[in-house]
Amino acid sequence: MEALAAVGLASNVLQFIECGYKVVGMAKELYESGHEATRSNAEAAFVAQEMRELSLKLVKDLPTADLTDEEEALCRLAQQCSLLSNKLLLLLDSLKTKKPRRKIEIIRTVLRNMRKRNERDQLQASLDNCRRQLNTHICYMSRSDIVTKLEIAIRSTRRSQQDILYLRDHVQKLQQKSTIDSASMASFFRDLQEVVETPLRQNAILHSIRYPRMHDRFDNVEPAHRKTFQWLLEGPADQPSDEQQAHPEAENDTGGFSGHQHTAKRDEAKYRKHREFVDWLQKGVDPPLADNAGRNNAFSIPNKGSIFHIAGKPGAGKSTLMKFLCENETTIEYLKTWAGEKRLICAKAFFWRLGEEEQKNLAGLRNCLLQQILTVAPELIPIAFPSAWGSEYRDLVSYIPTGTAFDQLLKGSRVFEKCKMIFFIDGLDEYKGSPIELIRKIIGWTVGNSADLKICLSSREWNEFEVGFKGCPRFRIQEWTRDDIQIFVMDNFEDIGDLSTSISKDELDNAANAIVDKAEGVFLWVRVVLAAIEQGVLNGDDFQDLQRKISAFPAELRDLYQHLFDSIPEYDRHKAFEALSFAGYTVPQYGSLLQYKFLGDLAKDPDFAINMSMQPLSEEELRRVSKNTGRQINGRCKGFLEIFSPKREYHKGDEHVRLMHSTAAGFLWEKDVQDTVESYLGDVDNFERLCHSFLALAKSLDTDDFYCAVSPGQRDYSSKEGSAFYYGLGRIFWNYSSGYGRWKGPTSHSRLPPMGGFRAFLKSVDRVAALRYDERETRRLAVPLDASVVFRILPEVKIAQGYKVNILPSQIIMTLAAQHLLVEYFDRDGLCDLRTVTANPEAAKHIIRAVLSGVSSSLDGWRSSRMLEMLFEAGISPKTPVEIPCNDGSTIPNQLWSWVFARLVFAESSWERRQWREQHNDPEDYDPGEGGQYKLIELFLRYGAGEDLGLMFGPCFEVIGANRLIVLVRVCESDGIPIEIFGLGGICVDYQLEIAQYARAKGGVLNFRDILAYCFPRDFHHLYEILDGKSPTSPVNDDADDMLVIFPTENRFFEGDSPPDTSANYIFDGKRVPWGCKQCLAHSEKCFRDFEAKFEDERSGRPYIPLKHPPVHDDDDDDDDLLLSTF
Description:
Shape: globular
Structural class: alpha/beta
Radius of gyration: 38 Å
Helix content: 40-55%
Low-confidence stretches: 152-161, 249-261, 289-298, 710-721, 741-752, 915-929, 1057-1064, 1101-1127
C-alpha cells in the first residue's frame, strides 16, 4: 500500500508540475504577444465563427416550405452547428484578457482558462463532430444534385451517349488545334460554342416537330406472320424456269390469276410482280420529258415511276405488308443499290382514322416524315428552317411552323446532292380530308425529284386513288396473297389439330383449302374464321360442324361483321355489349384488360370501386384475373375485341384490349348497331364506367410501371413523359371537361356528367395517390406533367409550346383540374379552395400555368371565363406574371393580361374564334354565346387589367416582285415600346387594311381605347366606363357583338408558299427582314404615298381603294372619325 501511495503521490506531483508548466507558458504567451487570447483559443474562435456563418447561410438558402428529407436533415445539422458555435464563441470570449499588459489580469485569465478547459474541449469536440457530419451530408447532397442535374440535362437535350461522345471528341480536336496556334483562342471559343450549341439547336427543332403518337399506328400493326410476304422481296418459293421467264404468257388486266388458273402460271406472274417491285426499289427513274415537267395535278404525274401504289380490300393486310417492308433488311439492301454513293433516308407514316388529329391530317403526315428525315440528316435543318436556325437557341419554341418547311425541303436544290429518300405512307384512305388534295400533294413532292425520291403508298381501292395514281407501278394485294394465307391457315391448324382428336389431318387440310378459297385475299376475314373454328374445336365440333361454320361465314367484311354481331348468344349479349360499348368509347386509347374485368363488378354494384379495398392484388392474382377476363372477352365478343400485350406493362402479365380493325369500329358506330346495343344496356354512362374502372385499376396495382414510369405504348416522347396513372387520369379529366362525347361510339353521350359522382371519384383517387406515392417516399419529388400553351389554331393543327409542370404528387389532381378547366372542382361545393392554394406563391404559379394551358386553346369558352374569374376572386391579379419555359430552361415573363390580349388581337379567322363550339358534339350545351371575347375583356378590366397596352405599326416592308406593301404589327405598352409576347411576337399584314390606315392617322400607334372602339363599335362605351371607374361591378353585356377579326388570314404575310390552312411561318419579331422582302421606312406617310403612287401607275391610273372593315368609332377624336368615314 505504501508503494502504491508513493506512486500516486509521484503522479500527482508530475501533474502539478505539468499544469504549472502550462500555466507559466500560457501566461508568458499572453504577456509577450499582447493579445487578448491565446493562439489556440484564437484559432478555435476563428473556426467557430466560420462554422456559425456557414450554418446560418445554409439555413437561409433552404426553402421555407416543402423541404425534402435530406434538406430537413441538413437544416437540423446546420442549426446544431450554429448553436455549438455560439456557445463556444461565448466561452472563448469570457476567456479573453481585458488588459493584456497587466500581470495580475493575465494570471486571472490563465486561471479562468484552466478552470474552463474541459468545457471548452467538449464544445470543440462536439462542434468538430457536427462539422464532419455536416460536411458528409453536404457532399452527399452535392453528388445527388450533380447526378440529378446531369439527368435533367441529358433529358432536356435528349442526347444519346454516342452524341455526347461526339461532342467530347470535337471539343478535344478544337483544343488540340488551339494549342498549335494560341493566337486563335477567340476563334477557338467561337468554334467550341458552335460545336456544343449545334446539336442542342438541332434537337430543339426536332423536338418542336414531333408529336407524341407519331408512330402509334405503326407500332400497333400486327407484324407479318412468318414466311408471309417474303415472296415480294425474295421471289415465290416455286420460281419459274429461265425459259418461262423469257417467254411469259399474257396475263389478264389485273396482272393476277384466280385460284382456278394453273399454279405454274400463277407462280410465273407472281415472280414477275416480285421482279417489278424489286426493280422499282433498286433502279433509278428517268427524269420526265420536258413537255411533261410542268404538269402537276391529281390525274397527271410527270414521272410515274417514282410512286409505287399498293391497293387492296379492307383487311387484306396492306398495313402489315407496309410494316414488313419498312422493317425488312432486304428492302434496305435493295434501296442502297439505288442510292449508290448517296446516303439513304427512309421515312414512314401510317394514317389512322381512329387516332388523334395529327394521325389523320396533312400536317401530321408532313411532321412525321420531316422529323425522321432531319433526325437522320440534321445538316438539312437549316434548309428546312432557315429562320429558326438563325434564331438564338433560347428563342426556339415548340411551335416552330412546319407548314412549308417540308415542301421547301423537297424543293431545295442542295437537299438531294448527298442523299436519296424513300417514303412509306400507309392508309391513304384513312386521311381526314379530300383524297384529291392528298394525291396532289404527294405527286407534287416528286416533281423535280424523281431521280432521288421514291414513295411507296397503300390504300383501299377508291376511285380517287385508282385514277390519281393511274400509270404508276402497282398491284392489288389480295390477288397475290393466296399462298401467304395458306401458310397462315396451315400454321394455325397445326395448333388447332393438337386440340382435337376427332378431326384428322386430311380433314383439316380440306378445311384449310376451303378457307383460303373463300377468303379472297382478306387476312382479317381469315383471322375471324380461325378464331371461330378454334372455339368450335374446343367445344368438340367434328369436321362436318367446321364445314358448316366455314360455309356460314359471309365473304364480304361488312356482312361478316353483321354475322358475328348477330351470332352473339342472347345470354351473353348484355356483357358482350358492355365490353363493345366501352371499347368504342375509349378509342383511340386502349383499356387495360383489368378494367374490363371491373365492368362486371360495377354492373352489380355501382359503388364497387369506391368501396374497394386499397390492398393491391398479388402478381399471381393479377395473372389469374387477367387470364379469366381474356377468355370471357374472346368467348363473348366473337372476335370484335382482341387482347394484346403493350410495350410497357402496368404489371407482370398485363394485357390490353383493342378493336380488331378500324372497319370494325365503323360497323359498331352504325346507328342500327348502336340502337341494338342501347336496347340491352339502356342509358349506360360510359364516362362513369371509365372513372370507376380506372379507380379499381389504381387500387389493384402498386407497381412502379403504373405510378412512376412512362405510360404504356409510349416511346420516350418528351410530351408524354410520366406515369400511366396520371396520364390516364388526365384523359378522364379531358373527357369530363369536353363533355366526353368526342369519341363517338356505341351509347356514348355528349351531355355533361353529374359532378356528384365525379366528386366522389376524385376523393377516392386522391386517397389512392396519397397512399401509393407515400409508400414510395416520392411525396416530395417533382412530377413532370404535360402542359402546352396554344398560340395558333388551324383546321388541321394547333401550334403550341409544350413544357413540363413539375409538381408534387399531392398536387396532381389539383393541377390536372386547373389544366382542364374543371371549374366544378374549385367552386364553393368543390374539393379545392383556390384562395388557400393561391396563398402559397409556388402553388399559385403552378395553378396559373396550368390554367393558361387550358385557356389558351379555348379563349372564348365558358370554362375559360369562369376559371379566370375564380382565379381573380381568389386574389390573382390579371397583371400577374406568367412564365412559360423556353428550350434552354429560361423563361420569358409575360403578364397574364398581356398574353390574353395578344392572343385575342392576333386571332386570325372566325374559324379560330368559334373553334371551341365546333369541337363539341352538342353546341347547345357548350356554346359560349355571342360576344365571348367581349365578355373576356370585360372580365379582365373589372379586375384591374388596365389600359396600358396597345398596338404598334411599323416598320414597313415591300415584297420583292409583287405589288405588295406589308407592315409589322406588335403589341406595345401605352408609350409605344414593343412588348415581347411569348409565342405571339408580331405579324406582318397588308398596309391597305383599314386598321393599318387607322393607325396611320394615329401616328403608327393605337392605344387600348382605340382598339376597343375599333373591335366593338357598338359596345365600347361600357368598357370605357369600367376603365374610368364608373361601373366597375356592372354586369356583363350579354348582347355584345363578337370581336372583329382584326387581321384576317388572307391579309397576313407568310414566308414561303403558304395557303391559309397551313402552319407556315407568320411570326416576326422586328429583328430581321422577312424573306423575299426589303425594308422601307418606318410607318411613314412618304412610304405609303410612294407605294400608292406606284400602285396607281401600274393599275393605269385607277385609284387605290383600302381594304375595309365595318365603321370605326372614336369619341375622343372627331377628326379621326371624319377621316375614317371616308373609307
